[in-house]
TrEMBL record, chain A:
Gene Ontology CC entries for this record: ATP-binding cassette (ABC) transporter complex
Primary localization: membrane
Gene that this polypeptide is encoded by: bztC
Protein name (Swiss-Prot/TrEMBL): Amino acid ABC transporter permease
Annotated localization: Cell inner membrane; Cell membrane
From TrEMBL, chain B:
SMART domains referenced in this protein's UniProt entry, alphabetically: AAA
Chain's gene name: bztD
Taxonomic lineage from the root: Bacteria, Pseudomonadati, Pseudomonadota, Alphaproteobacteria, Rhodobacterales
Name this protein carries in UniProt: Arginine ABC transporter ATP-binding protein
Domain ABC transporter: residue ranges: 23-257
PROSITE patterns: ABC_TRANSPORTER_1, ABC_TRANSPORTER_2
Length: 436, 263
């Protein structure tokens, strides 16, 4: 293009250059390999070394996994079957998984009631869907709200009136707030919204539920907590802990940033105490010590106790993660919200919290993953999660001495859940990206 | 200091000032810890007045206008905005903030919301305007600041000048009676300053009560009916723009003007 006047020093461009497509040599697999694998002598050597390393590892592991026996009935028999294959490094005994997978999934839940656990799991996916994917109809969230009560009934059985009466407590709280808020202001409304359901649950709920059950039972066969185990137990504790720790963590983070001295002191004290104590001590408190503090004769379900402890533990970490997000927001965001006349709760809900949560997604998901994996610690206080069950399985004379296959399978299952969470968080980060 | 004056023809006859008092500040003092930022500020703003506040950095001019909508708390004296006294009473603060719009140096748009959502948020949640109506209002003001086509974009996709115009539109959507501008053009490229100033001039012509902290002396000459010069937390001099620029009384003002106009 002869758009410059080469003969003079002064320069005036009289045509602007049009945009052009990049040259074709900039793409393609050959180009990619040259850029990423063989860009220099050192990189070429490293690439070849890595390939060799992968080859060595996979050539040992893959045959071990692939030729494993699925049918043997004991470790001894399995070892013989595998030895006949003549592989240099033997092969896996997957037969232990084939024999015990139901136990690893359901624990000692009665086999004829497995369907209830399955239905609960499928409904959990339905309840999670609108939370995870905002494109789905918002009305589905109503199901998500009611799901915990339904799940409780399906898993533990008993009369349907128990969860209904529990839900009624929340309805009463709402009614009490709405009525008194109009008559006596927001403070009285909030206090009533807390007191009314607590009185209801502690004093009236049980007799009402029993009374209704004696008229119309609506009951299914109850299952006691001691029979819960396996991945079902991990998922119950993990999902409940995850669902509860985020809101509690958000409130704690807000409390820690609050101007109200007492609220702030309580939140800081709680967070620092919980973070300063190992989870395992909290679980021991839940399993043994807590009984000393309760009135004699009260039975307080062990799974419930463990869920409370795991939730409290995770929410302390969550609070710090969310606080990090809040601190990362420019003060201008708070000021702009104030200047527009939004009050504290509206500004938090609409402006600061959505942004803080978006910033903290990686930290939040890390905490979720940590919580889910920490559920294996309940094996120490005698709950039969997958790790707890391994002791059981390995105590069986048939499977005495099996290690890799059992723990490998459990690790794989945990990996699938945790990897799923991690991928979802990356999807969410991409979706919420609004800058360039 | 950039001095890009807007080239619009101004019809000053439209910019009438009423006798009604919009803001009254009496003997107001503020401290940051032990540091005395604002000292005995006395100021009356009539409805329809356009005031430019100038002064060196650290003179307390931003702090002064931030006290008017309580982004900063004053410790002594009174501030009465629109007949409501600013105290720690949250209800009064909310009432005042509803009537007082503010634009910031760094725009402070909400990056997680689209331009339209930025503009409809406060009308919907503070004034309880129905969504459809709020969107109509928002589009009206986005057209006024000449960027209706950006309504569905996010703030991060707009230039600085466009963002500041959105910020002005966002404030206007609340139909404020007073507008505060805190150095609205200081973070902008020279080419974008003009588009923001044009918007502000237009607003002035419609009789909006405006308090503007700025270094744009061209803007001050063109639309202000009073320039306030501050230094060390005090009002040093105030006058009509003509007098202020041509005939400064105080030595401090002369020095300031010679520095910002002298090159």
């Amino acid at each position: 293009m002869s758009d410059t006047h080469a003969q003079t020093v002064a320069y005036v461009r009289d045509t602007m250059l049009p945009e052009q497509a990049p040259p074709t040599t900039a793409a393609g697999p050959v180009r990619w390999m040259r850029d990423n694998l063989f860009s220099s002598v050192l990189n070429t050597v490293l690439t070849l070394l890595s390939v060799y390393f992968l080859w060595v590892v996979l050539s040992l592991v893959l045959p071990w996994v692939w030729y494993g026996s699925w049918t043997a009935s004991s470790l001894k028999e399995c070892r013989e079957v595998v030895a006949d294959l003549g592989l240099a490094h033997g092969a896996a005994c997957w037969s232990v998984i084939a024999e015990r997978y139901l136990q690893l999934i359901y624990g000692f839940y009665p086999a004829e009631l497995y369907w209830r656990a399955n239905v609960t799991f499928v409904l959990m996916l339905v309840a999670l869907a609108p939370v995870l994917y905002p494109n789905l109809p918002r009305k589905m969230l109503w199901f998500s709200v009611l799901y915990p009560f339904l799940a409780f009934w399906l898993l533990w059985g008993g009369t349907l009136w128990t969860p209904i009466v529990a839900v009624a407590g929340f309805v009463l709280a709402y009614v009490a707030f709405e009525v008194l808020y109009r008559v006596a202001g927001s403070l009285v409304g909030v206090i009533a919204a807390i007191l009314v359901p607590v009185i209801w649950w502690l004093l009236l709920a049980a007799p009402v539920a029993n009374g209704l059950a004696s008229v119309i039972p609506l009951a299914i066969e109850p299952v006691e907590s001691a029979k819960f185990g396996g991945f079902m137990l991990s998922i119950i504790i993990g999902v409940t802990g995850i669902a509860l720790s985020l809101p509690i963590g958000i409130l704690l983070a807000l409390g820690r940033q609050s101007d109200l001295m007492i609220v702030k002191a309580i939140c800081v004290g709680f967070i620092e105490f919980i973070r300063g104590v190992p989870l395992i001590t909290l679980l021991f408190v839940a399993s043994t010590l807590l009984n000393y503090f309760l009135p004699p004769g009260t039975t307080f379900d062990i799974i419930l106790r463990v869920i409370i402890m795991v939730t409290l533990f995770a929410s302390a970490y969550m609070a710090e993660v969310v606080r990090g997000g809040l601190a990362a927001l420019p003060t201008g965001q708070y000021e702009a919200a104030d200047a527009l006349g939004l009050d504290y709760w509206k500004a938090t809900r609409l402006i600061t919290m959505p942004q803080a949560l978006k910033i903290s997604i990686p930290g939040i998901v890390s905490t979720f993953i940590g919580l889910f994996k920490d559920t294996t610690l309940v094996s120490i206080i005698g709950l039969l999660d997958p790790i707890g069950l391994t002791a059981n399985i390995r105590a069986d004379a048939n499977w005495n001495g099996i290690v890799w296959e059992l723990y490998g399978f459990i690790a794989l299952m945990f990996f699938i859940f945790c990897f799923g969470m991690s991928r979802y968080s990356m999807y969410l980060e991409r979706k919420l990206k609004t800058g360039h | 200091m950039s001095q890009i004056a807007t080239d619009r023809e101004i019809d000053r006859s439209k910019m009438a000032v009423s006798d009604e008092i919009a803001i009254q500040i009496n003997k107001m003092n503020k401290w940051y810890g032990a540091f005395h930022v604002l000292r005995d500020i006395d100021m009356t703003v009539q409805r329809g007045e356009r005031i430019v506040i100038a002064g060196p950095s650290g003179s307390g001019k931003s702090t002064l206008i931030r006290c008017i909508n309580r982004l900063e708390e004053h410790q002594k004296g009174d501030i009465i905005v629109d007949g409501i006294e600013l105290t720690s009473d949250l209800k009064n603060i909310d009432k005042i903030r509803r009537e007082v719009g503010m634009c910031f140096q760094h725009f402070n748009l909400f990056p997680h919301l689209t331009i339209l959502e930025n503009c409809t948020l406060a009308p919907m949640w503070v004034r309880k305007t129905p969504k459809k109506e709020a969107e109509e209002i928002a589009m009206h003001f986005l057209e006024k600041v000449k960027i209706p086509e950006q309504a569905d974009k996010y703030p991060g996709q707009l230039s600085g000048g466009q963002q500041q115009r959105v910020a002005i539109a966002r404030s206007l959507c609340m139909k404020p009676r007073i507008m505060l501008f805190d150095e609205p053009t200081s973070a902008l490229d020279p080419e974008m300053i003009k588009e923001v100033l044009d918007t502000m001039v237009e607003l002035a012509e419609e009789g909006m009560t405006m308090l503007c902290v700025t270094h744009e002396m061209g803007f001050a000459k063109q639309v202000a009916n009073r320039v306030i010069f501050m230094d060390a937390g005090q009002i040093v001099e105030q006058n009509e723009p003509e007098e202020f620029f041509n005939n400064p009384k105080s030595e401090r003002t002369k020095l300031f003007l010679s520095q910002i106009l002298g090159h």
